[in-house]
Every structure is written in structure tokens, then in C-alpha cells.
Amino acid sequence: MILIITGTPGTGKSTVAGLLSRRLGLKLIRLSALAGRAACGYDAERGSVEVDVERLFQIVRPLARGDVVIEGHLAHLLPFREATVVVLRCSPAELEERLRKKGFPERKIRENLEAEALDVCLIESLQVHSDVYEVDTSGMKAEQVAERIERILAGEGEAFRPGKVDWSEEFFAGG
Ligand SMILES: Nc1ncnc2c1ncn2[C@@H]1O[C@H](COP(=O)(O)OP(=O)(O)O)[C@@H](O)[C@H]1O
Ligand SMILES: [Mg+2]
Fold it and tell me: Which range of residues forms the domain containing residue 48?
């Protein structure tokens, strides 16, 4: 079983994947620890390393044996055909708070809030995978998020099919 946890930075991927790994005995693959080996350049404007996804896939594929959880904001780009993909979501207001606490610079905060409001990770996930869910983490504890994902894995995930989360009102109209 391959569980992919993706989402905009700050949505809780690392925290929740760690919990799930312990609770379910899944092997934990953190892409942040591997992405450096797949670096293909540096985007000076965005201040971030560019990752060659095909190369990252070659690195991750042999590690993804047995029951694994793969977490990272690029995880959904890995074309594991049989994966269950969970996109973590967070309201822009709460995400802004989380990223500020993490010490993100203002520009990075804006960029990530916009990506979250535009459903970037979800849309990309749907382009690559067929078994996709989204879990709104706003106002929830990481344990509660993990419980929801356990329900999805148990086949009780219909309530988490894509299309329910929509931040456009809050983000684009609210100012
Ligand atoms: N469900 C949650 N509710 C509130 N805060 C959370 C939740 N999950 C994670 N956090 C906090 O938000 C921040 C980002 O979490 P993290 O797991 O690092 O996100 P990511 O790996 O997606 O960037 C951390 O400070 C973490 O403690
Ligand atoms: Mg993380």
C-alpha cells in the first residue's frame, strides 16, 4: 500500500505522516530528505531548489516497498499508479498563522497562500492520480487529521472526495 500525503507547505504533511507512520506501522518516506539528490537547479527568484521529478521518482521507487507513507509537497507528482493520495488543505487565514510561526518570509507566505487558494496541489494530484482525497485540516488537531486519513484507508473516504474545499470567497473576495 502506498499512501501519498501532499499539500501546500504548512498544511501539516510532516506532522500527520509521522503520526500515521507510528499508528499504522507504515514506513515513512520524507521527500525533503531525498529531494537534494534530485536537484537540477536553483530558482533564484523563488529562492528554492528545483527538483527533477523523474529523478526523484527513480530514487523513491526502490524505497517504496511494502506499506509506505510518502510525504512532501511534491509527493503527488510521483507517478505511483496504485497510490492513495491525500491532499491536506488549510484555510488561508490559519495557514498564514502556521507559516508565520514557522518563520517563513513574507513573500513565501503570500506565494503559498495563493497556491492553497488556487488548489494547486489538488489539481496537480488529479492530473496524475485517480484515487485522490482532500482533508481540510483547519481548526483540527493533527491526531484528528490522522484519524480521518485512517478512515479513508479503511474505505470510508467518500466524504473526502475532491470538490468540497473552496477558499476563493475567503481569499479573493475577503481581501
Ligand atoms: N492539524 C494541525 N493543526 C494545527 N497545526 C498543525 C496541524 N498540523 C501541523 N500543524 C502545525 O503547523 C505547522 C506546519 O506543520 P508541518 O507538519 O511542518 O507542515 P508541512 O510538512 O505540510 O509543511 C507546524 O508548526 C505544526 O506543528
Ligand atoms: Mg514538511
Answer: 2-173
Q: Is the pLDDT of residue 175 over 60?
A: no
How far away, in angstroms, is 55 Cα from ligand 2 center? 20
Side chain identity, residue 135: V
Q: What is the mean pLDDT of the chain?
A: 96
Query: Which CATH number is 116's domain given?
Result: 3.40.50.300
User: Which of 4, 15, 147 has most ligand 1 atoms within 8 Å of its beta carbon, as the pocket-test mutant?
Assistant: 15
Indicate the number of domains in the chain: 1
> pLDDT tens across 39-91, in order?
999 999 888 889 999 999 999 999 999 999 999 999 999 999 999 999 999 99
Contact 126, 77 (CB under 8 A): no
**C-alpha distances out from residue 4 to 16, 108, 124, 129, Å:** 11, 24, 13, 10
Alpha carbon distance 136, 77 (integer Å): 20
How far apart are the CA of 148 and the centre of ligand 2, in A?
19
Of ligand 1's listed atoms, the one at least distance from the Cα of 88 is: 22
Angstrom CA distances, 66 to 3, 14, 25, 89, 140, stand at 11, 20, 11, 27, 30
